[in-house]
Design goal:
Two copies of one chain form a homodimer.
Chain A lengths: L3 H15 L7 E2 L1 H8 L3 H14 L2 E3 L5 E3 L4 H24 L4 H18 L6 H21 L3 H9 L15 H5 L4 H23 L3 H25 L5 H7 L9 H4 L5
Antiparallel strand pairs in A: 1-3, 2-3
Helix pairs in contact in A: 1-3, 2-3, 4-6, 4-9, 4-10, 5-6, 5-9, 9-10
Chain A binds a DNA duplex (30 and 30 nucleotides) through helix 3.
Chain lengths: 260, 260
DNA sequence: GATGGATATTTGGGATCCCAAATATTCTAA
DNA sequence: TTAGAATATTTGGGATCCCAAATATCCATC
């Protein structure tokens, strides 16, 4: 288990994302101490961390102010992440002898293939799909040869939907068991993009790898937009509930060790 | 003046960049307290900050270990930053009515024009050139409509050469007053790229804007490589000495307020 | 009643203290 | 002499205390 200040930062971040702590609200160290029954030392550390993440900012005089996260923020961050991944794909295509990462990518593609071919979408399968997706995307960041791409991606991965290889599912459709085929089709299309990216990298086709990754990254943005057309008052919490959370999420602690 | 922990983080970061604190060296809170005559509270805050930046990492058991920065790290980070700027250029070209930012860019281009036409490269002129360069690059980040691009750039801007609009000069040539024409030519070429980027954005030519920015960003990487061919043992300190430092550098505090 | 200044309270930054875990050292027994 | 246990020391995390700056409250004066 992490130290209190990390846990605290996670809790407060969650509260901000969920909207429990509203945008623009003022918070003081003392209140947080009170709420969470800890002393001011870990609270201070947690606040500094959140400040560096951009979740809160120092108020004019004293105190901190909640910055909050909007759906538009998520969209923007997804765009940044996607752009960084397209760089990673290009760089990896320009290198060679990344057998390790390539094998992982291939494995992930095959695994996702067999998963989508099962024609079902229960929790276990979704979790496995997510794992494959994480595997694929992480392998590119690891194999691109530029550690700062991964590091920089890690810097925004505390936001909802922005952890490495996050997947989005249409909760409503799945729970209602309708349009399962549609969701699976979408996953198959996504995996076909994975395969193309993999092939392009193997063949050293940097332009194609980058282009396909760019297209692939757009998928999530478009998906967010379909949510928005259906639900004009789409909240960040809604988005979170659409996102698959792995049990062992990449947290900021591991992120900081990207460079080994 | 900032609080002690910010200052302390800056000092320690500087020591790491300069190599005073060597890569792999172990540091303890107590020693830092001793060296800087402060209590452990600000030291802890500074260490956490540096840890988040990736400059240090927690050791296996106790203590922290210096990660250090290599020339290759800088090259990688420059690549990431350039890629993000190319995204910004594309996004800005796709928007319209960014009159404010466009004016600033145009102003910066004109200013750089007149500066390069003076045919001299003294300190004052270099400082003004740097200011124009910062103006140009900041305007794109501000005008692209995606706050996370700027925020993410800010996350790596504590590294040498990676503050917004950093410029690199061939110190040896300038101090020796030889090859001034060559340096000025390089600056003129750079500014012609600025002008093309500006024009492309005005015309809404996203592809051209992105492509030109990508090319423009490559310049610094290539310049680093010319340094390397000349000096096979190029150190990070060398690179720092080639970099123009504005008197009012964008520090981490302002970076955190990107989102306003 | 409004205004300005004096006083009280809140609040964040820094220092110090305590504690448990990790590490180093010493000592004992085979 | 050496392995291993017992002890001492170092070290980081957390709690608490102090202080100065910022803010709020109150009161006297006009």
């Amino acid at each position: 288990m992490s130290s209190i200040d990390i846990e605290l930062a996670n809790t407060i971040r969650q509260d901000i994302i969920e909207g429990t702590l509203e945008h623009g609200a003022r918070i003081t160290e003392a209140k947080l101490c009170d709420w969470h029954n800890v002393s001011r030392t870990p609270v201070r550390l947690a606040l500094r961390r959140l400040e560096q993440e951009g979740m809160i900012r120092k108020g004019d005089g004293r105190g901190y102010v909640i910055e909050g996260i909007s759906v538009d923020d998520i969209r923007q961050a997804v765009q940044v992440r996607g752009h960084l991944e397209s760089l990673a794909a290009r760089l990896m295509a320009q290198r060679d002898n990344q057998k390790d990462s390539l094998d992982k990518m291939n494995q992930a593609v095959l695994q996702m293939d067999s998963l989508t071919n099962m024609g079902r979408l229960d929790d276990a399968i979704i979790r496995e799909m997510h794992a494959s997706n994480v595997e694929f995307h992480s392998a590119i960041l690891d194999g691109c040869g530029n550690d700062y791409v991964k590091f920089t991606c890690g810097q925004i991965s505390h936001l909802p939907m922005l952890a490495a290889g996050s997947m989005v599912f249409d909760r409503d459709s799945i729970s209602g068991n309708k349009d399962i085929e549609k969701s699976i089709l979408r996953l198959k299309i996504g995996n076909s993009q994975h395969r193309i990216i993999y092939e392009a990298i193997v063949q050293g086709d940097a332009v194609r790898a980058e282009g396909m990754m760019r297209e692939h990254s757009n998928t999530m943005i478009e998906y967010i937009e379909t949510f928005e057309t259906r639900n004009t008052k789409l909240t960040v919490s809604d988005l979170v509930s659409y996102t698959v959370q792995s049990s062992q999420e990449m947290n900021s602690e591991t992120v900081e060790q990207v460079k080994q």
